[in-house]
Amino acid sequence: MAEVLVVVEATREFGVKKVTLEMLTLARELGTPSAVVLGGAGAAEALSAKLGEYGAEKIYAAESEEIDGHLVAPKATVLAELVNRVQPAAVLLASAQEGKEIAARLAVKLDNGILTDVVSLDADGTATQVAFAGSTIVKSKVTKGLPLVTVRPNSVTPTPAAATPAVEQLTVAVTDTDKLARVVERVAEQKGSRPELTEAGIVVSGGRGVGNADNFKLVEELADLLGGAVGASRAAVDSGYYPHQFQVGQTGKTVSPQLYVALGISGAIQHRAGMQTSKTIVAVNKDGEAPIFELADYGVVGDLFKIVPQAAEEIRKRK
Amino acid sequence: MNIVVLVKQVPDSGADRNLRADDNTVDRGSANNVINEMDEYAIEEALKIKEAHGGEVTILTMGPDRATESIRKALSMGPDSAVHVLDDALHGSCAVATSKVLAAALGQLGADLVICGAESTDGRVQVMPHMLAERLGVAALTGARKLTVDGGTLTVERQTEEGYEVVTASTPAVVSVWDTINEPRYPSFKGIMAAKKKPVRTLSLADLGVAPTEVGFEGATSAVVEHTRRPPRSGGAKITDEGEGGVKLVEFLATEKFV
């Protein structure tokens, strides 16, 4: 079976990201999964056990300071060379900022079609995408070149399938043009041990109704009790209640968790665009007419400052 | 500094949006078409740089006839002129082909700095800045929440999932911005009147030296096979809190195995 290249998403702090395991699971349906690690020195070593656990038969490792110290251009150059050499059946990347950027450059280098925000991919190359804020399901195909797709986090259930990957070091030969955008500083500000927003199985979000930044502790408390991530509506972010990187909506992150809890969020279209493909939606809002209730599988009309602490207490009791 | 801002006309994301039944492209005919929201932040950033460092701001749009409305709206915020890439053969173009056309136009405009929104609200594909940078052989600093210009050096602060990073490059470069970067100005009455007289140059594919077969449906590198409307979610149970709302909420979560 032909190789399927999976470009690994990982973070320094948490290692291999869940979306990578989803891509490996998907790749096994399409061919033989090979993981591609593009990073600094020693990057592959730390990730190989996990990649093998989810079925990577091979790991291509490109490790250099040139990759680590610049935005995506060197990664795309290395990947393009690899694609030309191994002629894979498909190339999968994560549908997040970096994955999309690498894919964008690869598409131009190879004059190849590209599909983003893919939630499933058939063996014949037909991809399913969710468009227009989850209101339209699109089936599409790359018609020039190989299937080059970015996979949306939380689209596939990752399942382990142990393999013992052989590691092949790639030669990194990049041009001066690849080194134009230099990273001069990286500042970590990830909060605590909460799961990453787009990958979390449970997301608890607060909106304007939360009232102020301090009250977001309530949202965080419920998220922690449920083992979820914290999100915020644009209204809450614009009001300065919570940082922008946690914004869910049309101009923020798109999430598709098993459970989405909306607290004090009215459900403006801006917000719905980022969360309405969630499997189960629960809402608490004092306005019984709020549009969020049109989406919610379970809605409680009332004061979130009474309901949320009571719910937190009840969860503690049951634990 | 010679700055070009990419502006895309999109169907209003606040209203119902569809793909056309006949050719699977975005239905613009029945939609309320507006400037892609993120592009207004790009225009604002360009105007701020011009105000601080001098230079010129040009709007670049690829789109059908009706995109003229968005071009005038963009000009009313303050840019000097606009270029409209307009050609019937462009209908149905994929992102790869679009980048070819825009890169050809940018090549003619000779910009020091290209600024665009991080993504459009219709496709949300987010690939254009890097596709253009790849074609033009310049740097792409994407997803900026802060941009500093110091002579020919650009420094961008960009959000990442773990925090943020500071990235730098020399001009010429492409920079894409999120809506956290500034607060776009509203066009003044004077600005709206002035926009009507600002020069808008039209470029065809022939002007750009791009063959019609390289774009549109014929030159597309991907195709929509079919599309369906997802059934709207229907609301489930809704209760009013009478003192036990929190407990009932957890009972629901327990039946769904979340607790």
From TrEMBL, chain A:
Annotated residues for binding of FAD? 208, 233-234, 247-251, 264-271, 285
Q: Does the keyword Electron transport apply?
A: yes
The record ties this protein, via PROSITE patterns, to: ETF_ALPHA
The record describes its quaternary structure and partners as: Heterodimer of an alpha and a beta subunit.
Instruction: Show the GO MF annotations.
Output: electron transfer activity; flavin adenine dinucleotide binding
Which intervals of the chain form a coiled coil?
Answer: none
Query: What family does the Swiss-Prot or TrEMBL record give for this protein?
Result: Belongs to the ETF alpha-subunit/FixB family.
Taxonomic source organism:
Micromonospora matsumotoense
Sorted keywords for this record are: Electron transport, FAD, Flavoprotein, Transport
Single GO biological process annotation from the record: fatty acid beta-oxidation using acyl-CoA dehydrogenase
Q: What is this protein called?
A: Electron transfer flavoprotein alpha subunit apoprotein
The cofactor note from the UniProt entry for this protein is:
Binds 1 FAD per dimer.
* Residues of the Electron transfer flavoprotein alpha/beta-subunit N-terminal domain: 4-187
Q: What Pfam families does the entry give?
A: ETF, ETF_alpha
Q: What does this protein do?
A: The electron transfer flavoprotein serves as a specific electron acceptor for other dehydrogenases. It transfers the electrons to the main respiratory chain via ETF-ubiquinone oxidoreductase (ETF dehydrogenase).
Enumerate the InterPro entries for this protein.
DHS-like_NAD/FAD-binding_dom (IPR029035), ETF_a/b_N (IPR014730), ETF_a/FixB (IPR001308), ETF_asu_C (IPR014731), ETF_asu_C_CS (IPR018206), Rossmann-like_a/b/a_fold (IPR014729)
Entry cofactors: FAD
Automatic annotation (TrEMBL), chain B:
Judging by the UniProt lineage, the source's domain of life is: Bacteria
Single GO cellular component term: cytosol
PROSITE patterns given in the database record? ETF_BETA
Q: Which UniProt keywords apply?
A: Electron transport, Transport
Cofactor requirement: AMP; FAD
Domain Electron transfer flavoprotein alpha/beta-subunit N-terminal residue range list:
23-212
Q: Output the InterPro entries linked to this UniProt entry.
A: ET-Flavoprotein_bsu_CS, ETF_a/b_N, ETF_b, ETF_beta_N, Rossmann-like_a/b/a_fold
One GO molecular-function entry = electron transfer activity
Pfam families per UniProt = ETF (PF01012)
Q: Which PANTHER family match?
A: ELECTRON TRANSFER FLAVOPROTEIN BETA-SUBUNIT (PTHR21294), ELECTRON TRANSFER FLAVOPROTEIN SUBUNIT BETA (PTHR21294:SF8)
Q: What does this protein do?
A: The electron transfer flavoprotein serves as a specific electron acceptor for other dehydrogenases. It transfers the electrons to the main respiratory chain via ETF-ubiquinone oxidoreductase (ETF dehydrogenase).
Q: Which family is it part of? A: Belongs to the ETF beta-subunit/FixA family.
Describe the protein's quaternary organization and the partners it interacts with.
Answer: Heterodimer of an alpha and a beta subunit.
Q: What is this protein called?
A: Electron transfer flavoprotein subunit beta
Please give the organism: Micromonospora matsumotoense
